[in-house]
Amino acid sequence: MDWQKIVIHHTASPTEVRRLGKSIPVNSALIREWHQSKGWSDIGYHFVIMPDGCCTEGRPLNRPGAHCKVGQRNSIGIGICLVGNFSETEVPEAQLNGLVNKVVQLMADFHLKLGDIELHRDVSGAVTECPGRYFPTDVFRKVLKESMVC
Q1: pTM for the full model?
Q2: Which of 2, 46, 125, 128 is the most exposed place for a label (fewest CB within 10 A)?
Q3: What CATH number should be reported for the domain whose range is 5-147?
Q4: CA gap 61, 69 in Å, rounded
């Protein structure tokens, strides 16, 4: 794949759900189930960042995503999703740090620049609030810039 962008999302879901009387975390396996129940072949995102900052793999990077229909972002953009609803709550610091770490790694791996990192809502033609109104865009960009190796 010729990755040219990284697109940041949120699940717009709780971080845990009840199943068979138990609380289970929303993770890449559960998101995969949700997406496959829609008839998709796999989870739409390439990576999922948990509230504690841990990153799990989703769809393999050798396959286009299913996370942003506009602007060819499924074909040219790596999809990273934060678990949580950041239209209702703030992003935990550990999760933001995990996102920054993953983005920095991917930028180095695919020779991407700061301008290649997009929030889903900022992709031209996208009609969404994703990754949520409380996503700390300015802090994210500042920490990302500071974390980049020159």
Answers
A1: 0.95
A2: 2
A3: 3.40.80.10
A4: 17
